[in-house]
Design brief:
By secondary structure, the protein is α+β, with helices and mostly antiparallel strands. Strands 1-2-5-3-4 form a five-stranded mixed β-sheet, with helices on one face.
Length: about 150
């Protein structure tokens, strides 16, 4: 078990299986020392636990927890191409998409769920640049989608 997976286990979390692509793409690709993930939905055992817009059918607190699940799925995608999460030198960028009700403006707070998880399990290596974007709709009516880019240690 990697040190990162041990930190996940301390929090009662296990790295899930990689979420299969919904279309013609790969969950993650490596280019040089970087790994780029596709947008990860908050899938749990092949299903979305909640659907709808944040600020309407989904509370900001629920959406923040879903963003944590997205980050966990992104780490699984990274491991699928690196074989070991301890190879992560740092998280470079996180992009979070929040399917938002028209008057919802709390996207940064929702995406904090992903950022905080990465910080908890990666420490300083989890500190990153970030965008939190409100959108009209996401695939499968998911409330949140997160993608990450990481740099690998040599």
């Amino acid at each position: 078990m990697s040190a990162v997976e041990a930190k996940l286990a301390e929090r009662g979390l296990t790295l899930p299986e990689v979420v299969p692509p919904l279309a013609a793409y790969q969950p993650a690709v490596q280019s040089g020392v970087y790994v780029f993930t596709a947008g990860q939905l908050p899938m749990v055992e092949g299903k979305l636990p909640v659907t709808g817009k944040v600020g309407a059918e989904v509370t900001p607190e629920e959406a923040k927890e879903l963003a944590r699940i997205c980050a966990l799925n992104a780490l699984a995608a990274v491991k699928s191409v690196t074989g070991d999460l301890d190879r992560i030198a740092r998280v470079v960028k996180v992009v979070g998409f929040v399917a938002s009700a028209s008057d919802f403006t709390g996207q940064p707070g929702v995406v904090n769920g992903a950022s905080e998880l990465l910080g908890e399990v990666l420490g300083e290596k989890g500190v990153h640049a970030r965008s939190a974007v409100g959108v009209a709709v996401l695939p499968l009516d998911a409330p949140v989608e997160v993608e990450i880019q990481v740099e690998l240690a040599p």
